[in-house]
Amino acid sequence: MSDNLYAYGVTPDDGDIELDVTGVEGADHVYTVSHGPLAAVVSDIGDMEPERTDENVRAHDDVLRAVMVDAERTVVPMQFGMVFKGKRPLKNILRTGRPTFSRSLSDIEGTMELGVKFVADEDAHYDREEMGQVVDDRLEPVSVGTIVNDLFSDRLVVNRSYLVEREEREAFDEAVTELDEEYDDLTLQYTGPWAPYNFVDIAIEAQ
Q1: Could you identify which of 72, 84, 161, 199 might form a hypothetical disulfide with 147, taking C-beta atoms 3.0 to 4.6 angstroms apart as the criterion?
Q2: 76 φ/ψ angles, rounded to the nearest 5 degrees
Q3: Cα 144 to Cα 168: distance, rounded to the nearest angstrom
Q4: What residue ranges are annotated as transmembrane (predicted)?
Q5: What is the mean pLDDT of each run of 10 residues along the chain (207 residues)?
Q6: What pTM value is reported for the model?
Q7: Which domain holds residue 21?
Q8: Hey, is 205 helix, strand or coil?
Q9: For the stretch 83-94, what's the b/e string if a residue is b when 16 or more beta carbons lie within 10 angstroms of its beta carbon?
């Protein structure tokens, strides 16, 4: 068996995590490697450079979602493709990065990222700035952070990422539903929960 470890993210070391989820490259066992107050969520992998297929990317996100939702843990996500040659280099990352990881975990404690897009019908016209403000006015009271993403299509009117506390998820869902019901000529694309990629800024190199 390979000693290579695929890392999904870093979470507080609050005991073992038992997740019923399939990892990258079909891994059937997702577990944690701990060092001090931190733990990395990992699975075993043979390839040091896993292929970035839709299935593997989906598995990466599914594991992070399971950590947040099923295990109810805060997690700092790692980018896809982080593979370490065994536990020692991974623990070294947890040791050297402890201040940064701990600060980020504190900043995003108990939260998840949710994506909100509104796409206009072909014959509908909206002022993007005004509509963005309308959406923010409704969603910012039930969230703790907002990122304005690129409007990469002519019909894309709003593209936001929101950082939402776990306890506010239901209220946020309701606010999004109300917005969707008010605008018949806008199509809602509501995604997540995601690990809060847009709300942490940590550069990690695999070893």
Answers
A1: 161
A2: -90, 115
A3: 10
A4: none
A5: 86 85 92 92 90 95 93 92 92 92 92 95 91 95 95 93 95 96 94 92 59
A6: 0.85
A7: 5-108
A8: coil
A9: bbeebeebbebb
